[in-house]
Every structure is written in C-alpha cells, then in structure tokens.
User: Which sequence fits this backbone?
C-alpha cells in the first residue's frame, strides 16, 4: 500500500485560550484529490498552515510527503505547490519575472508546461503582480505551483471570491495538469459544488473538528435519504438509532438521513420500526445535502 | 553559489533605478568633494552650492534607507502568509545574497568616497583606515536598525511613519537623558561606569536587534522575533541607566575603538592634582551681575606644569561646617573660546614661542582666574568665618595644545598640511552674510581663515582653534577672536570632512605682510575625575 501523501494524528491548535483545532485525524492517499470542506472559521486554513509548517501544532503531529511538518525544509518545497488566497506575493515582480526567478529553484521545472499554462490561463507576463486582479493573481500563483510538476498541490480556498469565468479557468488549469500525472491535490473550500466536481476524497469540518474524511464515492453511497410516508394516525416518536443523522417531517412524509446505508438490509431494519404497509423509499444525496445535514446536526455526534 | 547570484541578480534588477540614482549621487558627491578641496573654492562658496551638497548628502542617505527597506519588503519572506516560505528558497541562498547586496552595493560604495578624498588630502594612512573602519561600523549598525524596522513593518509608508516617530521619541529621550545626566553629574557615577553603561546599552540594543532580525528571516515565528527586538530595546534603555557592574576599561574601549581614536575615551580615572594648595589661591571678588561674592581660583599653573589643559565638564563645590551645608553648582565658564579661557593655554603657547610677548586685548597680561563658585549674600552672611570642609570635585577631559600651522601672511596665504588645507585671506571687513544675529560687525578688517580637514576622531568635539598673530619684528603676539559665534564649532563630528570659517578681528593697523599666524588646536586626552578637599577651610568672603 502506498504511503499517504498527508497524514495527521490527533492534530490540535490553540490560539491563546481559543481552541481552533481539536483531535484531527485524517490521511490523504497519494494520487487523490482531497477536498476539505467547512464553513468559515472551521479551521481549514489553520490545518493547511500547520501542514505547510507555517504554524506549529499545539497537539498531535502530521506528516507531509513522509516528513513531519515541523521538519519540512526548503528541499521539500521542491515537491509541494501551495496556493493560498492569504499569501503575500512579491507584488513588485512581473509575472514573467516571478516565473524566471522561481525556475532555477526547482529541478523539475517544466518550461513547456509553464508556457502551456500561461496560454491556458491567459496570464500577461509583463504585468506586475500588484497590478493584477485577485483572480489573476491566484492564477499566477497556481501556475507557479504547477509548472514544476509537484507531487503535492495544496490549495487554500482557491475559489473564494473568484468570478465564474476565472473559477472555470482555474479549475481547468488544475485538472488538465493533474490528469497528466499522479499528483496529489489537497484543497480547502466552502464551495461544496466545486469540491464535489473536482475531488475524489472529502473531509468535512465543523468548527475545530473533522467529522468526515473518506472517499467521495463511499460517502455518497453511505449517506442516503429515506422517505417514509406514514398514515395520519401513526406516531413519529420512534427511536431510529445512531445511524440516522437527521429526521424531518414534511406533511405525511418523514425524511431520514441515514449515514450507514447498506441497501435492503438498512431498509428492512427501518421497516421493522414502523407499521407494516408503509412506503419506504431511499434516494441518493448530493454532497451539498450531506454537508448541510452535518452542519445543522448537534456538535456532539460524529457520523 | 549559482543560486546566490541568481537571487542577487533578481534584487539588482528589481532595485536598478534606485541603485543608479544612488550611484549618481555618490559620483556627484565625490565631484563636489574634489571641487571643495580646491583652495579657491571657499571664496566662490555660495549658499546654493552649500545647499546642493546638503541636498546630495540628504538624498544619498534617504536612498540608502529606501534601498534597504525595499530589499527586505519586496521579499515575501517573513510572516506566516509569505510566498517565499513555501518555496524552495534556502536561507543559505537568501541571506548571503542579501548580505552581498548590502555590503557591495550599499555599505562599501558609501564608505569608499571619503577615504578616496582623504587620499587626495594626503591624510595619514592611519586616519584614512580609521575613517573607513568607523564608516563601515556605523553603516552596519544603521543597517541593522533599518532592516529590523523594515522586517516588522509592512510597507514603505508604515516604515517611515514608525521610523520618524521613533526618531522623535529618541530625540526626546536623549534630551531628557542629557538633562538627567547633567543635573546629576558624571561625577556621581564615575566615568568608567558611565562608559560601561553606554557600551552595554549599545551592545544589548544592537545585538538584540540583530538576533531578532535573524529570527524574522529564518524562523516563521515572527512575533517572537519582534517581541525579542522590543524587549532588547527596553533592556538597553534600562542598562543605560542602571547597569550595575563596571567592566574593565579594556572591554569598553574595545567597543568604543570603532568610534573613537585610541587617545580618547581611555576610561581611566586620571587623578588630577591641580593645586595642592589651591585654597590659598582662592580670590574673592564681588560679581555685580550676580550680586554676590564669587570665589575664583587660578588654574593657569596647571597648564604651565603639564602642558595639558583641562576642559571641565562638571564642577561641584560643597562646604560642610557644624550643621551647615552648602552645595552649589559654580558659574564656571563654559565657552571654550572666550578670552579668559584662552589664557589658560598661554603658558603652553609660551613654551612653544618663548621669545614672543603674548597679550590679550581684553585683559592685557593679567587674565582673570577661573571662577569656581558664587556665594550669594544670604549664604555669605550665614557662613561667614565658619570653618569646615570645602570639597571641590572636578570632572573633565585633559587636552593638549598642539601647534597646527605657522602661516606667513600675504596675499591669500595657504598651508597644506596632512589631511588639511588652511587658507587665509585678508578682507577689509567681515562679509555681512556670515554674521549671525546679535553680532555686531564694525568696519574693521578681518582675516578670513578657512580650513578644510578630516578629523581623526568620531563622536568627539570639533577641534577648537586658537589664533595667535605674531609680529616677528616686534616679537609680540596677540590672540585673535572670531568676529562671529561659530555655531558649529563644538558639534560632534562623525569622521567627516569639516569645513570651518573664522573671521578674525584685526585692529586695522597691523603690518599684515610681515606677520605670521600661528594656529593652535586642542587635542583631547584622558578623562579625569578628581576630588580636592580642604578640611580646615574658613569661609571668609570680604564684606
């Protein structure tokens, strides 16, 4: 089995008395595209800063490409591309100057790929970074992180605040590059649709905690909506067990969100708790539905 | 090495316009320096020219700072959100390339022109080396300060706001500190402790900033680096006041040698036994201006016996007698160039020119002795005829008097000494443009003495000149005085070229063509700290 590109155990971070992260455990398989979802303030950026050794964890530990994050050194960054909306860029440099400056630092710098991406992302090489729009700056940063064919690309909120056109360019640039090789991508976002479209692994954070971390396919299969049409006189005060994340009643229909759905076996278990002859139907959930269900669910429960 | 040069190339390319401008300023400065050294220059010296040299110096200094700030702030290297931190830019590349830039493109270009100019002045190699060394050390210290501020501010404007605010705060603090020290006196601490505190304060300050700077550029914990820098600055201030241990003078002079010539700041408490029987020489005179009796003592014999003369920086006199106590700061002369003080050096000059009868226009051959303290009417009555202990405490610096030049006067007389040009011109009267407010200029002729020199000391007082006009035929010599107060005469110099104009008043009937102008200069020697006690002193100012 391949060693994961990123691995974290019991990761925690405190800022004074504020606990920003608590007990994060996850691993990102090599070659996967991992999307870290969560609302603002959930701790996504803090997690990424710890992974990039920009912050020191208060508890636990993490490895990136086989090295403890606190031991990451300049040579490790020859294999890691990092793009963040919060990065302070060398604003006085032109795009072309930035690329020319960075190239010698990367033994794997691919000038042809760099040219392709320049055209694909429609970046002007003679413009200073400070004169670029936010979206263009993010594209320049992405280009500078892809052109050396990194083993791992870490993107912190790459789509935040970008207009749809730039977002599409950005995604296209990213996808076209990673489709050519076995790069690992770790991105954080609160844009559920973008994560569902791009990622094959997903992690979902609620403030300070990671509640989900698994392959997208497994998650979508595991979470199912079950609609139960009850007779008017039937009671809804039923103990559904710990596998139900959410229960909602809409007229005669009871909607359950089940997080350990196992096909007919699950349906049979539910039917056993309700009067016979009642209609029970299951349907797939979107990542958005799952994310919202988890976001609105009590903090104490972990599916 | 390849990557270091790659990084350096990037910096040079990014700062090319500012570097070109700085280069231009340095070249212009060299040209002005060479032009200034021409003997005819001072006669053509115009206000515009003076302003242009000031503007050049100021522009150069500002560009030097701007370049340093840009060098740091154009690199997103410090702070947790910085681009370079997640790039394979090794500190082993980044830091050496910055050091090369700072050393070869900022510090050396700025340090070299003056020694070149000094070579042109035929200055002594030791003096040139001292200037180069001092300039480099000062620039390094300034660079540490600027780099530290640039690291922990986010933009050029923020840098200047903080820098100007800190400068104003430092001026206020130093003024308050000076006041504190003067009012308490150096004597209270002793020169060794004072020097130790000065050295330790500077060491803590700059070493702390240097470490903080390294942290800011090597570790991601910028807040820790900033806090360390601020803590060290505060610790330095406290050390300046309260550092308790006196370090050996060798240690303090080791640090001060970068700024001072070896002959000064030895830090030793030289015992100065001026007049063992000085109490017998006290002369009481009524000072009508102060409306009080003033006790004065002749210090002239000091110069006679040692050829050294003291510059007193602090004198205290105290008198204790059976429950009575008197402490007063004497009204001792502070002007080094006044006519009375000059007579302190007359014996030294006489030993150099034994055949010349020296006179002073104001006092003739009877100069007043130095004033020690003033006793007002109340204290005079209270203490009259009481016997007690009189203590005189002196703190100051020994000075030796050296003859700089003996210039036979004539039309535009010139003396070209080592590292110095002196040019004397006879003028019907002092030009009004050189007269400062409050100075009366009569129609009498003046000698215009212009000297351009490199001082071998730093942080020392600018040299004090004494001018003696000698008529070889009549063998008489007269002190000449500047017709205007020279505001810059006593300002500290930083190993820079000093240009001095003195307009010396003449009576008008001197046979100038046959006369010789002797120029003497005070050379600082050791500091001294002496206390003299008279245990059975009777306070008896005349009624």
Assistant:
């Amino acid at each position: 089995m391949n060693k994961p590109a990123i691995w974290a155990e019991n990761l925690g971070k405190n800022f004074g008395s504020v606990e920003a992260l608590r007990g994060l455990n996850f691993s990102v398989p090599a070659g996967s595209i991992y999307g870290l979802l969560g609302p603002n303030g959930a701790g996504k950026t803090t997690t990424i800063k710890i992974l990039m050794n920009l912050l020191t964890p208060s508890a636990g530990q993490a490895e990136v490409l086989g090295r403890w994050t606190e031991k990451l050194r300049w040579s490790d960054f020859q294999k890691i591309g990092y793009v963040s909306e919060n990065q302070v860029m060398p604003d006085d440099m032109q795009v072309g100057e930035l690329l020319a400056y960075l190239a010698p630092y990367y033994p794997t710098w691919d000038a042809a790929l760099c040219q392709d991406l320049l055209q694909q992302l429609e970046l002007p090489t003679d413009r200073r970074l400070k004169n670029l729009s936010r979206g263009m700056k993010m594209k320049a940063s992405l280009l500078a992180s892809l052109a050396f064919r990194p083993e791992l690309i870490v993107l912190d909120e790459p789509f935040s605040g970008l207009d749809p056109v730039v977002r599409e360019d950005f995604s296209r640039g990213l996808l076209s590059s990673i489709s050519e090789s076995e790069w690992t991508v770790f991105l954080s976002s609160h844009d559920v649709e973008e994560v569902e479209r791009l990622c094959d692994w997903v992690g979902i954070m609620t403030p300070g905690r990671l509640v989900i971390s698994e392959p997208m396919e497994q998650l979508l299969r595991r979470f199912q909506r079950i609609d139960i049409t009850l007779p008017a006189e039937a009671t809804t005060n039923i103990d559904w067990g710990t596998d139900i994340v959410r229960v909602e009643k809409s007229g005669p229909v009871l909607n359950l969100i089940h997080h350990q759905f196992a096909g007919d076996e699950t349906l049979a278990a539910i039917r056993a708790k309700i009067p016979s002859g009642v209609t029970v139907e299951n349907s797939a959930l979107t990542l958005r539905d799952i994310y919202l269900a988890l976001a609105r669910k009590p903090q104490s429960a972990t599916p | 090495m390849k990557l270091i040069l790659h990084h350096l190339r990037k910096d040079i390319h990014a700062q090319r316009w500012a570097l070109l401008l700085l280069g231009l300023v340095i070249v212009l400065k060299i040209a002005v320096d060479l032009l200034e050294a021409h003997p005819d220059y001072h006669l053509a010296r115009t206000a515009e020219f003076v302003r242009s040299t000031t503007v050049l110096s100021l522009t150069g200094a500002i560009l030097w700072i701007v370049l340093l700030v840009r060098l740091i702030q154009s690199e997103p290297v410090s702070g947790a959100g910085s681009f370079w931190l997640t790039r394979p830019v090794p500190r082993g590349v980044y830091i050496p390339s910055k050091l090369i830039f700072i050393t070869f493109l900022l510090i050396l270009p700025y340090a070299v022109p003056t020694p070149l100019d000094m070579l042109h002045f035929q200055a002594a190699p030791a003096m040139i080396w001292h200037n180069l060394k001092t300039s480099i050390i000062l620039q390094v210290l300034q660079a540490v300060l600027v780099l530290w501020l640039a690291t922990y501010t986010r933009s050029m404007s923020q840098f200047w706001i903080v820098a100007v605010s800190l400068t104003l705060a430092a001026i206020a603090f130093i003024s308050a500190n000076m006041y504190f020290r003067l009012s308490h006196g150096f004597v209270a601490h002793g020169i060794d402790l004072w020097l130790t505190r000065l050295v330790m304060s500077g060491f803590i300050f700059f070493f702390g900033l240097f470490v903080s700077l390294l942290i800011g550029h090597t570790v991601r914990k910028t807040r820790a680096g900033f806090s360390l820098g601020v803590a060290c600055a505060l610790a330095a201030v406290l050390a300046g006041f309260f550092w308790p241990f006196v370090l050996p003078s060798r240690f303090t002079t080791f640090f001060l040698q970068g700024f001072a010539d070896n002959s000064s700041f030895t830090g030793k408490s030289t015992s100065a036994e001026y007049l063992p029987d000085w109490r017998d020489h006290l002369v009481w005179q009524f000072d009508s201006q102060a409306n009080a009796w003033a006790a004065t003592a002749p210090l002239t014999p000091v110069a006679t016996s040692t050829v050294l003369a003291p510059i007193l920086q602090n004198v205290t006199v105290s008198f204790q007698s059976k429950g009575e106590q008197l402490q007063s700061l004497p009204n001792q002369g502070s002007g080094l160039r006044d006519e009375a003080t000059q007579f302190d050096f007359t014996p030294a000059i006489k030993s150099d020119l034994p055949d010349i009868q020296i006179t002073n226009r104001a006092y003739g051959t009877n100069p007043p002795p130095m004033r020690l303290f003033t006793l007002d009417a109340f204290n005079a009555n209270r203490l009259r005829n009481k016997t007690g202990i009189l203590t005189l405490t002196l703190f100051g610096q020994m000075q030796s008097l050296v003859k700089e030049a003996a210039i036979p006067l004539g039309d535009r007389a010139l003396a070209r000494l080592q590292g110095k040009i002196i040019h004397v011109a006879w003028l019907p009267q002092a030009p009004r443009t050189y007269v400062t407010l409050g100075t009366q200029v009569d129609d009498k002729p003046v000698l215009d003495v212009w000297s351009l020199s490199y001082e071998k000391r730093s942080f020392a007082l600018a040299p004090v000149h004494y001018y003696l006009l000698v008529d070889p035929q009549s063998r008489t010599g007269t002190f000449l005085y500047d017709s205007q107060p020279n505001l810059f005469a006593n300002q500290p110099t930083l190993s820079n070229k000093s240009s001095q104009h003195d307009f010396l008043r003449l009576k008008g009937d001197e046979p100038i063509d046959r006369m010789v102008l002797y120029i003497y200069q005070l050379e600082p020697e050791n500091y001294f700290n002496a206390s003299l006690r008279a245990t059975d002193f009777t306070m008896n100012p005349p009624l």
